[in-house]
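dumping these here so i dont lose them again. two proteins, back to back, each one seq then structure tokens. dont judge the mess
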Amino acid sequence: MSAIDDLPPLREVIKRHELRAKKSLGQNFLLDLNLTGRIARAGGPFDGVSVLEVGPGPGGLTRALIAQGARVVAIERDQRAIAALGEIAARYPDRLKVIAGDALAFDPRPHLTVPARVVANLPYNIATALLVQWLTAEPWPPWYDRLVLMFQREVALRITAAPGSKTYGRLSVLAGWRTRARILFDIAPSAFVPPPKVTSSVVELVPRGEPLACASGLLQRVTEAAFGQRRKMLRQSLRSLGGDPLELLSATGIAPTERAEDIPVEGFVALARALAAR
């Protein structure tokens, strides 16, 4: 793909700002314009939509989003990248707002208009924690209408896993409870600078309008207990919740001999409700 704007090439930006990717920040820069464009198109269309991007780095995806017509709020903690992103903001002052800060401690809602959307190549070291924040947001439906996010493929498989699979776990339950999640496409390690050791995947999560009612905190407690000892039967793994797990299981009709990986989302929601009642 040819240049998408009249700004300097990304490799030149990285060199000028000494933006060598830091492992401590979970950085792997995606420089392929075909791939950044593909991610941006997967997140669109952007008519009337405010977009949050987390960890934009030198701004490859940022520029692709702007080229697709998005208005972007970018949160970045690397001061070197802040300077590089400032050049994009100067070129598109009405299309990009750059905020310096930690995404895990950042409330994006005051900076976004509704409807809002998240499109991001998430830093690997905070990707799961951020997703859990967004999945457990209150009130529901949330402030975003869609999440289009890049993860390590093993994390993407956990997000989209079905009961009975080896990758089915706590993240699968939280994602399946409140969203419809699917993997859109994979990206090879060679597309990144520096190349990670694993394949990445772009995942789309669309919020359910009316998910099964339960307290997100209790659902997290139940799934943490159950999958914390996933090889054990629930009558044993749920002991960490306190009290008699057989009472919870009896109240939900789940056999004490079942294991976490075989329980559907509805079963975990029922357990969370029983825990609340107890």
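---- next one ----
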Amino acid sequence: MRRPTKAIITDAGYASRYLPIAKTIPKAMLPLGNRPIIQLAVEECIEAGIKEIIIVATPEGKPIYEDYFNNAVNHIRKQLRAQGKDERYDAVRHVLDFPKIRVIQQDPALPYGNGSPIVSARDYIADDEAFLVLYSDDVVFDSSDAKKLIESFDANPNAKAIIMAQEVDASQVDKYGIISLKDGNKLDNIIEKPTTDAAPSTLASYGRYLLTPEVFKYLNNNNTGLDDELWTVDAITSIAANDDVYVVTTDGEWMTTGDPKNYFLAHLKYVLDHEDYADDVRQALGDN
């Protein structure tokens, strides 16, 4: 199996917790600082050496992503140059210099669920290549999980899948899919939102995966799960029943932006860690 050179980034859900704004703007286009959430995932892939990125979007989101990653907005560039502010265009140049980004629409014939965007990109994945999957609403600060997944694949070329995990406090396990391990660092199962007493570990699974085409045996209309949705985790645990699925713990900090509260917390962390107005924000929050 060839090591990954392609990544699938998914943002094809309804984002109903973000209505009404999500009816017009894809959730992953909401900002962290002056960059959209999805750009962090793209840059994570680039750091890992990924050559082609496939973004799977809704019909409404597809033209927005195509515009963001391809439109040079030359009229703005000319205006900035005329004003002597050409350096403000550097952020646009950075986006336009990204490797190949293909934006596709999720197949409407597939059931709802976080596995359907992956199936929608099947035609772009060869039968002999591994690939990355990143959920755009999961952001990882201070590390490239994409790079770590590929390094793990290099060390374990027999892997049929590799998933990232983060240690969480034992009191928080009932909020996450918690990993059960076997044989050291191999996946046995993922228990969804267990009680503290029933949790097999404090390792939470989230949306960073290295997969092989083996996953497509299980991601199909005949294998829907909870709420008749197509779940990536169900497919991965099915693989783990017969083949090696490795678990890697992140070196960074994973945060979700999947709902307004957690999005705000992730945005706040990003601003405090990366923006030159961070001290002003701390002062406004009374955190001196």
